[in-house]
Structures are given as C-alpha cells and as structure tokens.
Amino acid sequence: MEILPLSSLDALLSWNGPGNLKNFLKGLPPLHPRSPPTSLLDQCSGKKFKTLVCHDMCNGYKDDKYCFRTSNSHAYKFCHWNAIDTFVYFSHHFVTIPPCGWVSAGHIHGVKVLGTLITEWDEGETIWDTILNDPAICELALNNLVEIAQTYRFEGWLLNIENKINPEKLKTLQIKDLLYFASELTQRMRIKNSDSEVIWYDSVTIKGELKWQNELNENNIAFFNSCNSIFLNYTWNEDHLKRSVQVAQSRLTDVYVGVDMYGRNFYKGGGFNTNKAFEVIRKYNLSAALFAQGWTYEVLGAQNFFSNENIMWNSLEPFMQYHGPSSLPLTTSFCQGFGHNMFRNGKVLNDGKWFNLMKQQIQPIWEEVFRSSSNRTSITTNEAYNGGSCLSVWVDELTKIKLLVCQISITNITEFTFAYQCRGTIKYVAFTFSHKVTSECGDDEREVIMVAEKTEEKGEGAQVDDLASTILSPNSKDEKNSWSIRTFLLPVISGCLCDFKLVPQGTWRCFLW
To answer: Nearest Cα to 6, choosing from 100, 147, 118?
Structure first.
C-alpha cells in the first residue's frame, strides 16, 4: 500500500475516499501533547516563535510513500522533531497528501503535519478560473480538502498559488473570491480539528498578481488575516523583516520567514550558512520556515548524511526552542525508522535492511546529545533492543547527556525501565531527571538519579550521587539477550519532570524505557 498525490482538479473533485487504506489510516497515532518550548542556550531565552520545516525532495513520494517497509535503509529520514512545530510535505503535484510515515513520526513528537495545495503558471490560472467561477466546484473542492486531511490524519494545508488570478474573469459574488476560499478552508479545518493550520504562501497579491513580496504588507495581509499564518518568500533582507514586524503587530509568531537551504538569491547563501539567516530572523522574534532541509542528504549525499545533518542542526541550536513529551506512557529505543535488522527485546526478529518511517520512535535532542558528549555518541544498527537502531555511547569521563526536555507529572508510583548493553568497560551508568518545585521563594530545580550500575564506590559517579536530591536503586535486575535490564519504581514527585539525562562513563549502547 502507498500514499500518492492528486495531480489534477478532476482528481480532487472526484475523490471519494482512500479505498482499502481506510482501516489502516484509522490506526495512525493522533497528535500527541508536548511540553512548552524550552531554550537550551541563552540566545533565544524568553522569546516566542515557531519553526516549520517544508520537506521538498525530488518532487516527493520516494521510499516514504509506502505504508510498510522497503529495503532501502539509506532512504531519507528526519529526526530533529523536538526543534520544530510544523512539518509540511511538499511536492509540485496539485494536492500533496503527506505519506503516513511522516504523519506518524510527526505526531508522536507532537508536531503538526500539513499537506500542500499548489498551482503554477498557466495551468494553475486555469484551475483557479474553474474553481472561483463555479460555486458548486468551489464547495466540492473545499469539502474534499477538509475530508482528505481528516481521512489521512494530518492537520492542514500550505496554500501555494504561484500563478496570477485574473480578476477580469472573476464574477463579483463572494463565493468566487480567493479570499473566501482561503478563509473557508481555514475555518472548516478548525471546526474539524482544533489543532489545524492553514498557511498562505507569499506569492499572489490581493490584486491577483503573481508578485512575491518577501514581507508582510498591504499586498498580502488580507490573505494572512484569512489564514492561520503566512510563509514569506525567501529573497528578503533585514528591512523586509522590520516592516513585517510593524504590520504583524501581535501576530509575530504567525509570520514564517522563508529560509532556503539551497540559498537561491537568499540571505547569506543557505547551506551551512543557514544559521546566519536564523540569527537575524530570531532577532525580530519572527517564526522561520526552513525549506528543503533535506539538502544535507540530496546534495551532500547519503554516505555522510548523519554527520552533515548534525553539523547543520547543531549550528541552528542557538536559534531554536525545544519540546518533548508531556504525558505517559513513554516508550522509545530511539529507532529512526530504518535498520539492517529488526530487533525485538534485543534479539533479531527479521534480518535484512529496511526503511519504514512508521517505525520511527521518539528521538532525543540530537543537538544536545552531540554537544554534551563531544560527538562521541552515534546511532548504531549493529545492535538494537526494539526496532532497527539504538544509541551508541563512548565517553571516558563521566558525562551528563541531556536526551529529552519534557513536562510530565508523576502523581502515582511509576515504573521506569531501561536497557543497556556493554561493549567494553562500564564504570558508571545512571539515568537522571530534573523536576521543578515551586515555593514562596520561587522555582527550585531538584534532581533524581537512578543508578543502574557503578564499579567504583568512590569514583566520579559518587560525585554525581552526592549532588542528587534523591538516589534510587533498581527495584529489579534482569539480563536478556546480552542486554541488562533495570527497573526502578519512581515515587510521586512534586512539580513536573522537566528533562531526562543519561549519565555514562565507559563504552556501551542503550536503551529502552
């Protein structure tokens, strides 16, 4: 089974459901709740903004279109979900429906997933002449777009109209108006889904001209007001941003400034200079829309993708805010949705290379993982506990590695289990979480540490133990298929858990909880 786009207006108007995919789509995960935004570095502390990724790669629908596995373990995957708020699946087909793997991976991280409605050039002009001059066609198109989003379980649409709208051909009735179409789609999506988002792309003006503005102004603000947000074109300069701030007023976070990874007539040239564009965008408290983030794969190649991807996202960390889980249960082995084998409980279940984004699990904050471990943490597919991959850690000195930020209340005794596997010498293995306690004196951050293993009572691990508010020993220990399993009983905690950290010393792989 596969997810495919609709390439014509006729295909949209005649759409009558997903066929044999109906029951499968019902099983896609809903949009999970997530923690409030957290700045990990000082540059963006106290600011409010959003980050969008617009995924455009070879016109879409490659290995990712399949609902089940393929054998191409090198296919593109995205793992920096904690840093973004919205994911747009983009192609140049008329109606781009996000494949179910992207919906699943986005939703488990609390990220909205949008499709794209795009029209271009003369063909696009003809399509809109047809829609806007026939009330019945307009109504059917609107209804089907809403139903498609509901059926395929995604949150909304990017409206990308890259053709002129000829006002001489339009009749005067309100139903024919493009503003009406944008507004109705936005409102109808919100009625069906309170988390919906419809974004207007900065291309067509209120006069029907195809004229990119690169800013929010009198030529596109009517569309901005009709939708939830606007995606500005990429060829902006700092003056464009200043004027956008003045026009947006209280809606700064609804203005996504376009960032082109390919650097086409773009500020500072894109690529590994993309962070320079983010720096100036955040200077004005504006949101950012990162277009073609797969540049690190499509241009630089699959062989060094993992390294190049982390170089890119590490450079963006000062200008990002991060989210994480806000509810239980929480389960992950950090599988990215690919592998050389499929593991279950540390044992090979199925051998052979595979790729399936439906199998991607909650990811750590890779930027923090690499920075805090001095790039001595990686993904390995040689072993895994569940899925196709796990973290591989090698640190000589005791290190705290922040894996997740979160906001989770522990109101009952809670079981916490993790698994690890030694590939060398383990001196210390622990897992910690911080929790904030509010009192008359303000917020006080405390730490609970779960010590799975330590070989030196007076070693560096003891220093970590001394700093902890609460130290827990395993409630049970087990060994399974060369993996060490440790289970802790977490007591009721005042305040909310706000992060999870791994505290290793030695060479080993992990985990499941």
So the answer is: 118
Can you name the residues that pair with 451 across neighbouring β-strands? 430
Number of domains the chain is built from? 2
Task: Dig out the tokens for 32 from the structure.
Answer: 């999970």
**Using one digit for the tens of pLDDT, what is the confidence trace for 497-506?**
889 998 887 6
- Joined tokens for residue 172: 């005067």
Q: Which residue type sits at 401?
A: I
Question: Cα–Cα–Cα angle for 216, 187, 130, nearest 5°?
Answer: 80
What is the gyration radius of the CA atoms in the chain, in angstroms? Answer: 24
Selection from 78-87, 450-459, 490-499 with the highest mean pLDDT:
78-87
Residue bearing the bigger pLDDT, 174 or 424: 424
Please give the structure tokens belonging to residue 314: 């590490």
Indicate whether 74 belongs to any domain.
no
> Of 322, 349, 370, at which residue does a domain stop?
322
Instruction: Give pLDDT tens digits for 302-349.
Output: 999 999 999 999 999 999 999 999 999 999 999 999 999 999 999 999
| CB contact at 8 A, 403 and 364 | yes
Distances (CA, A) of 433 to 33, 451, 472: 20, 12, 12
pLDDT at 512: 42
- Other beta carbons within 10 angstroms of residue 195's beta carbon come to 12
What local confidence, expressed as pLDDT, does residue 170 receive? 52
171 & 285 share domain: yes
Among 126, 118, 78, 67, CA closest to 96: 118
The 10 Å Cβ neighbour count of residue 242 is 12
- Distance between CA atoms of 351 and 485, rounded to whole angstroms? 24
At 410, list the tokens.
């522990």
348 in the same domain as 302: no
pTM exceeds 0.70, yes or no: yes
Q: Domain limits at 481? A: 338-512
- Which among 282, 297, 322 is the end of a domain? 322
CATH number at residue 343: 2.60.120.260
